[in-house]
Design a protein that fits this description.
The complex is a heterodimer of chains A (about 250) and B (about 350). Helices cover about 35% and strands about 15% of the residues of chain A. Chain A has about 250 residues and is an alpha/beta fold. The radius of gyration of chain A is 17 Å and the shape is globular. Chain B is of the alpha/beta class. The chains are: A alpha/beta (about 250), B alpha/beta (about 350). The complex binds thiamine diphosphate, iron/sulfur cluster and magnesium ion (MG). Iron/sulfur cluster (SF4) binds next to helix 8 of chain A.
């Protein structure tokens, strides 16, 4: 990091669980915002020593190497079954998955549904940017109608491509799901709410209530084909109508 | 202390796994491996372990990944079809150097290539052990867990319908393996240390980017495994003019046919590979150098015969005397499992040798 003049007062610093403040994701990406929320909360709740993160495959796969907690890197879509194995043999650990919409809702949909139905006591966190970000902007099962991707040129069309899956609403129906909420990372007030939802989901796990899921809508300006500063407005305009924010089950 | 009991091969192998310290099992029913799942679902909770009746083979291997990655001895079993579904995870478990024991109770022996080559991607290898009896299944289950931890590499046990369902007397004699180092690589939560990442994609140390070194470490041990873990049963090789090679439960039929051939005065010897990878190439090569011919009996269209040919390297002609053999059930127990028939084929190979 660049040197800071002595006259400056430090009012803000990266979470101490971040081993390197610089990330390799795109400018304006929402995923580092979500990472920061998770790491701050782990520190706040004093969970670092017993935290095990199970990571999926997407742009956020860059995070495991800069997070100062134990991480098991899973294959694309498989984090919920891996987290199941982890939590079953380490019931005292605090276990959360970190997946994207492509990872959870496309490739591994049955995994999250079965884990929720079994009431596995871990927290699933999904960064929903409605696109396969890492591969360069292709349609996922969560891409919204009308959204332009490289495989829905001209916009996602209900007739041709089907409609998006709302993972929170799907999972909330299952008995084993104790807490389900959808948040976003695009405005300060949304971030505050997201922190609250994550907190409540973590608590649901720590209290042994069952499966918890927090979906965080994240900006992907690169694969939405907008500039970084346009990401938050794009999210509000195009994602929130399909994916309303709020607690869906508690 | 020895303990002799009559048990089906599947149950015996599962019990042996529990005695080896297996505390996590996940499976999805499929004949002829279902009995392992049934046994584990009763047995593991008795010792404080966990058995998951997973919703798919893909999820089952994911669960085993998670448990094994935490340092807990973990096992999975299935049959060729289910094993096919696990191949992506198999390849990456080897890259992540996570020790798991995977059992394939095959239908016939058509999964030889799948086991020894692997159906997954990349430069990985599984150690593959092929028991010929319930007792050997018991012993090799113990060995499998030891080798998996010793080499930090997955181990497969390849059986079949007959092994799974035949009841035999087994002795749960405790093995004497050298002590292994603690699993410092396991995911435990970063208590008193910096976090680590257990990943098939690269190194465990945070901030490190040396992917090549991590993947090289996962494969550099292959030479050591070949050197230390090659196993085979042999008989009558000293004066053998024909060397019969067969593995697994059908290998017992072939061994008996060789004995009958000997009684008829034919100079026939046999090699039964116990480790399919590493393959006992040197034993076969040495025997072939003294013999007139080699005959391979296997219940498939000709798979292990390629490894035998690679070992023999033209020193003697290699005949495939097995074949695909099924009854109406399709579980691989067919008319070729007949000592008289095998003997006849051995005699033919001996005559034309
Ligand atoms: C089995 C498999 N199929 C495909 C891929 C390629 N792949 C890597 S990341 C990715 C998309 C990830 O999308 P998402 O989870 O939404 O994360 P994002 O990149 O959007 O953050 C895909 C398809 C893979 N790694 N493994
Ligand atoms: S492609 Fe999208 S999700 Fe990936 S780093 Fe860039 S902005 Fe973030
Ligand atoms: Mg995405």
């Amino acid at each position: 990091m660049t040197d800071v003049p002595a006259s400056f007062e430090k009012v803000f610093e990266p979470p101490d669980l971040l081993l390197r403040a610089e990330h390799s994701l795109c400018p304006g990406c929402g995923e580092p915002v979500a990472l920061r929320m998770m790491l701050e909360l782990i520190r706040e709740l004093g969970l670092r020593e017993r935290t095990i993160c199970v990571a999926g495959i997407g742009c956020y796969t860059a995070f495991p190497m800069i997070m100062d907690v134990d991480v098991m890197q899973a294959l694309h879509g498989r984090a919920p079954s891996v987290a199941t194995g982890v939590k079953r043999v380490r019931p005292d650990a605090f276990v959360f998955t970190m997946q994207g919409d492509g990872d959870m809702v496309s490739e591994g949909l049955q995994e999250v549904i079965h884990a929720a139905a079994r009431g596995e006591k871990f927290t699933a966190i999904v960064f929903n940017n409605a696109v396969f970000g890492e591969t360069g902007g292709h349609m996922t099962a969560a891409t919204v109608l009308g959204q332009h991707t490289k495989t829905t040129v001209g916009g996602r069309d209900r007739e041709r491509h089907g409609s998006p899956i709302k993972i929170c609403e799907l999972v909330a129906q299952l008995e084993g799901a104790a807490y389900v909420a959808r948040a976003a990372a695009h405005t300060p007030s949304a971030i505050k709410l997201a922190q609250q939802y994550l907190h409540d989901a973590f608590r649901a796990q720590l209290d042994g209530k069952g499966f918890s899921l927090v979906e965080i809508l994240t900006m992907c300006p690169t694969d939405w084909f907008v500039t970084p500063d346009q990401g938050p407005a794009f999210l509000e305009k195009h994602l929130v109508p399909t994916y309303p924010l709020g607690v869906i089950k508690q | 202390m020895s303990e002799r009991v009559l048990m089906e091969g599947s149950a015996a192998m599962a019990e042996s796994a529990v005695r080896a310290g297996c505390r996590f099992y996940a499976g999805y029913p499929i004949t002829p491996s279902t009995e392992i799942l049934e046994y584990m679902s009763v047995r593991l909770p008795q010792v404080g372990g966990t058995c998951m009746n997973a919703e798919s083979e893909i999820e089952a291997i994911g669960m085993v990944w998670g448990a094994a990655g935490c340092g807990v001895r973990s096992m999975i079993a299935s049959t060729g079809q289910g094993i096919s579904l696990m191949q992506e995870s198999f390849a990456e478990l080897a890259n992540a150097q996570i020790p798991v024991v995977a059992v394939n109770m095959c239908r016939g022996q058509g999964d030889y290539f799948q086991a020894t080559r692997g159906g997954g991607h990349g430069d990985y290898r599984f150690i593959v052990l092929a028991p010929a009896s319930a007792q050997e299944a018991v012993d090799l289950a113990q060995l499998a867990f030891h080798l998996a931890d010793k080499w930090r590499n997955p181990v497969m046990i390849m059986g079949d319908f007959l092994l799974s369902h035949t009841s035999e007397i087994v002795d749960f004699r405790p093995p004497a393996f050298p002590e292994l180092p603690p699993k410092s690589w396991a995911i435990t939560g970063a208590d008193g240390r910096r976090g680590i990442t257990l990943s098939p994609l690269g190194p465990a140390e945070k901030l490190s980017t040396d992917i090549a070194a991590a993947l090289s470490a996962a494969t550099a041990k292959h030479g050591g495994i070949k050197g230390e873990e090659t196993r085979a049963e042999t008989g009558h090789l000293d004066d053998a003019e024909l060397v019969v090679v067969a593995f697994g439960f059908p290998g017992r039929f072939a061994k008996y046919a060789v004995r009958l051939a000997r009684e008829r005065g034919l100079r026939v010897g046999f090699v039964r590979p116990i480790s399919l990878w590493p393959f006992p190439s040197e034993v076969i090569a040495a025997a072939a150098a003294r013999a007139r011919a080699v005959a391979v009996f296997e219940l498939n269209a000709g798979q292990m015969v390629e490894d035998v040919e690679l070992a023999v390297r033209g020193r003697a002609p290699v005949h495939a005397i097995g074949g695909i053999s099924h009854d109406h059930s399709g579980f691989g127990v067919g008319p070729l499992l007949n000592v008289e028939l095998i003997l006849q084929r051995i005699e033919e190979a001996y005559g034309t040798a």
